[in-house]
Fold these 4 entries.
Entry 1:
Amino acid sequence: MFTGIVEERGEVVAVRDLADAARVTIAGPLVTSDAKQGDSIAVNGVCLTVVELTGGTFTADVMRETLVRSSLDKVAAGDAVNLERAAAVGQRFGGHIVQGHVDGTGALVSREPSEHWDLVRVSLPAHLTRYVVEKGSITVDGVSLTVVDVGPDWFTVSLIPETLRATTLGVRRPGDKVNLEVDVIAKYVEKLASPHLGATGRGTAEETPGE
């Protein structure tokens, strides 16, 4: 489990195509400082398992399902990525519950810079819209953010200077693909409530494409 508080911006060192999978090596001195084989590290919001560690870099396997669902299918050597180690028991929980299980991808639609923050609009896949609410939480490329506003196929977030400085969201441009993870609590509530909604319900979680 993660909190969506990015610890450092790493860099992709190498990507090896395995036909139905990929093996990625990423430089991240901070997140590898106490890592060991088998640990989980979120890369742009995708939970990956460390299979190798070498001098400030780690290697992880990315399965076909992850490549299909996330933006990691386009990652290349030299790309910057957001990194976060799994949450440790007993530490402050700064963001919200993040699983590292990407629900889908959106695209950055626009950004409106101001003196102290940027208002960013991101496209929202149709099957995720019901889980996104004003002032709710959403994870964008592994960053825990508060939704400012939401429309039928988009939502907006405000990025403070620290987020702009410390994460890749500071350099994303319109058209860039981003990973989205909605609040898992909303999905559980939907599934638990759906048998009691009858004809007015919106179907069970199992019927939702891409989940």
Entry 2:
Amino acid sequence: MDHLPENLSTVEDFLENDAFRAWVLERRTEDRIRWQAWLIQHPHKREIYEQAVATLLVLQGKPVELSDQQVKTKTTEIIDQMPDTFTVSKPLLGWHWGRWLSAAAVIGLIVWFQLGKSVFNSLTKPDEQTLAAKEWKIVKNVTGQSLVVLLPDNSSVLLSTGSELRFRRQTNYALREVYLQGEGFFEVAKNPAKPFIVYTANLTTKVLGTSFQVHSFPKETTAYVKVKTGKVTVTPANSPDKPILLTVNQEVKLGTGTKQLVKHDHLQSEEGADSIVNQQFTFNYTPIPAVFDQLAASYHMPIRYDQHLLHNCTFTGQLNDVPFLEKIRLICLTTESSYEVVNNQILIHSRGCN
């Protein structure tokens, strides 16, 4: 199957879909990638998707030993909390579908109570963890300009306006995973032991430490990945077994309608989108105020410093392949300065240079 259907709107639609049944019952890696991408593209359908998963697991699962009183108590509790979305009108395979779905929901939720919700938690993420709000943070950029997002592993993302990023609040996981809707320029802190993965509806990008741009807006006809430094592998959602390797100044474009992939050995110009991809952060005895001003303009994050104290200070170095805060730290290191992040701006503390 090249792509998943767009018109899955009810539990019945999911259960009648061969790809959905194969994913839930067989749990193949390539299916996981496809359904992750589908859920990113259709976040409003996650609840009905989870209900369908619950129902299918009940149909295929093992019975749970409960006493009559436990069944009665749990069923009463669940029915009292059951949402209206469990109601479905048309029949399936001769069953009275509305009644069966309600019963399946009750049984499924009883299984959930009995097993501590572990069945449900294994369905929607690569590392089989819950999407609880306390675990994940969502940043939506509605500022009208790009916004720097600082990740817990010290990586940074320059998130374009109209885009959304979801990432874990903690770093104690085997993978560093983020979910992007829209566009972001990523500068990834090097950590070979923990690969960094960016999921979008159309493309999955995997790196160890590098800088690159991912562009994948839901309603646009083209998605792409551009590499500034390092190497990445890009996997199209419709071809999970065909990753594409990109190196410095290479890019890959995907027609979201045609699913046609085109790889370029040089970065193509995208109006107003890729300026930071082409911008070089290489300095040779450059006055520190000029360096800070360039970074502030490029990342749309204010950098506050004492112009008088730093006017004699200079910086020499190449900062293309390090995250935003690492750039600030290295500059401060050369001048025995320090910094802090306060109210989404950088404050520089320095004694200046003689």
Entry 3:
Amino acid sequence: MEEKAAVIALAALAQEARLRVFRALVGAAPEGLTPGALSAMLDVPASTLSFHLKELVHAGLVAAERDGRNLIYRPSIAQMNALLAYLTDHCCQGQSCGTGAARRRTTC
């Protein structure tokens, strides 16, 4: 991932409602969610949700797919993983510091 793409993705996630939307979509992967389901789940008005989804799509973190009359929003797991890899690329001076719970216990 290029630095510019990482900045755009981080900027998109640096807003409370968008972060909540993204986390909800990650939780619903791979099936995804409709805007109506997201709106009800997160108690976000449809017009506000539309704005936040547009920003997440622009950042490449979310994709929309038409299914009949509905739009289904899904997280881009590959883009999320690329962002995580970019952020941790130089962790622990290039040494493996473990994953998951082991990583949280180590100090970098």
Entry 4:
Amino acid sequence: MNFHRWTRHAALLLATMTVLLSGCTTYVTTQVTAFSDWSGSDATRTYAFTRTADQQNNLELTTYERIVANELATHAFRQVDAGAARYLVGLSYGIRSDMVTVAQPVYYNPWPAPYWGWGRPFDPWGPWGPYGPYATAYVNQSYPVFTHLLGVRITERASGKEVYNVTARNAGEESSLVRAMPYLARSALSDFPLGNGVVHTVKIPLDKNGGASNEIGATPAAAPAPASGAKAAQ
């Protein structure tokens, strides 16, 4: 899976903030980009998964197809045999690791306490209290960051025409693509169908068990106006 340089830098910046805030983060943030020529109706949303030659007999992909199928079902898609399907759905996915280095503040006391004879009368600690005056230094600390990617491509079976292509990407400390996949799939299809060229950010809260919550929030980015079938995520 190739990543453009600017995309990689943006992902690393997002991942750095994710790592630093991981102690209080209660949601997963995913960037979604869609290209669309969708004109189907609910009545025609039958589909089958399709695989490339190197994806055959792949148990990992089978797992991801089930996750995506659950999300497609929420948008009136019905999985059928390939010969009876109006659409073919293909998946692409990947994970990559990087190291990010962040300057972290470290506080230290250049004047060891106690400070006898300083400050107010009968104040053995002086004007700085029992811990003395603190100075600040910075130490570089490195963190592993993992970028997860899911692509969902929908084509018309009869004509081979691509009608929808959406990519979901997030980054953080999670080293398992399996655990990241439910968030990627839900984000990718959270507002189906998006208009052509739409880019937005989806935030999925974590439930008390650490799984994906049913609540989804989407923050649109600057992009062309969505198609008439698109709706804003709540």
